[in-house]
Recover the amino acids of this structure.
């Protein structure tokens, strides 16, 4: 595997890879794990909100920086890298990476476990993933609203299913924290945090009308529909942008 090249965005290290390169790394991680090599590889998808959170939370920054692959999930991260003088290749949306990884899983006969979102949603996502990818083995799924008391049994269930890939959609930073703590015990070769991707896969998160898509304003439509999320994201973005500018122009 070629050496990792990472770009420092306000203390968070992001890999300089495109979508194909990122998917290829995941493939190598899975193959290595299946061949008896290292397992428990962590893949994260930092966006401006996650980087902003990590700036104020050294523990979160450390675990993101210890991940085996971190892709720039958001144009804001790519723009920041350019302003800071160390440009990333481009954006690698977590959802696109997940779709690409499912294609590899299909071709390679990987065992996949889905963890997160609501019971009916994860069941529907599992049904669709299995139907669209006959070569992939969907070895289990579990919703993301379990209690700490449920965790030991859950880990045992995941372990018994022997997944190559554990897809965690618990929202950020919960999924990164959960994977850092429990991924080794699950025995999965790779764990990836994918936020709301299972909702989209299951057809639960509605896409914006065509006019919003044409004007590249899909994000605005989504924010307007989810005020709780909007407050979170609109709060973090200006602080992130400001911090990038300060870092760039600081004498
Ligand atoms: N979620 C979950 N368990 C929790 C909290 C959230 O499974 O305890 C799920 C939630 O249902 C949603 C996903 O995490 O499907 C991501 O939520 P959100 O869009 O808020 O996160 P983001 O993608 O912005 O990180």
């Amino acid at each position: 595997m070629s050496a990792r090249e990472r770009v420092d965005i306000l203390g968070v290290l992001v890999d300089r890879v495109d979508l194909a390169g990122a998917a290829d790394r995941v493939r190598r991680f899975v193959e290595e794990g299946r061949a008896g090599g290292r397992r428990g590889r962590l893949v994260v998808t930092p966006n401006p909100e996650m980087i902003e959170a990590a700036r104020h939370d050294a523990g979160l920054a450390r675990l993101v920086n210890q991940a085996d692959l971190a892709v720039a999930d958001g144009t804001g991260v790519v723009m920041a890298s350019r302003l800071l003088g160390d440009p990333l290749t481009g954006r690698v949306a977590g959802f696109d990476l997940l779709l690409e990884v499912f294609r590899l899983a299909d071709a390679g006969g990987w065992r996949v476990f889905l963890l997160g979102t609501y019971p009916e949603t994860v069941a529907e996502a599992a049904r669709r993933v299995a139907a669209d990818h006959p070569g992939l083995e969907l070895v289990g799924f579990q919703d993301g609203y379990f209690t700490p008391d449920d965790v030991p049994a859950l880990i045992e269930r995941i372990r018994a299913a022997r997944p190559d890939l554990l897809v965690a959609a618990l929202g950020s930073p919960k999924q990164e924290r959960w994977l850092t703590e429990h991924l080794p015990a699950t025995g999965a070769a790779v764990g990836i945090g994918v936020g709301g991707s299972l909702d989209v896969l299951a057809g639960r998160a509605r896409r914006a009308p065509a006019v919003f898509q044409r004007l590249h304003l899909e994000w605005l439509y989504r924010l307007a529909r989810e005020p709780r999320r909007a407050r979170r994201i609109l709060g973090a973005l200006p602080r992130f942008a400001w911090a990038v500018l300060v870092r760039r122009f600081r004498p």
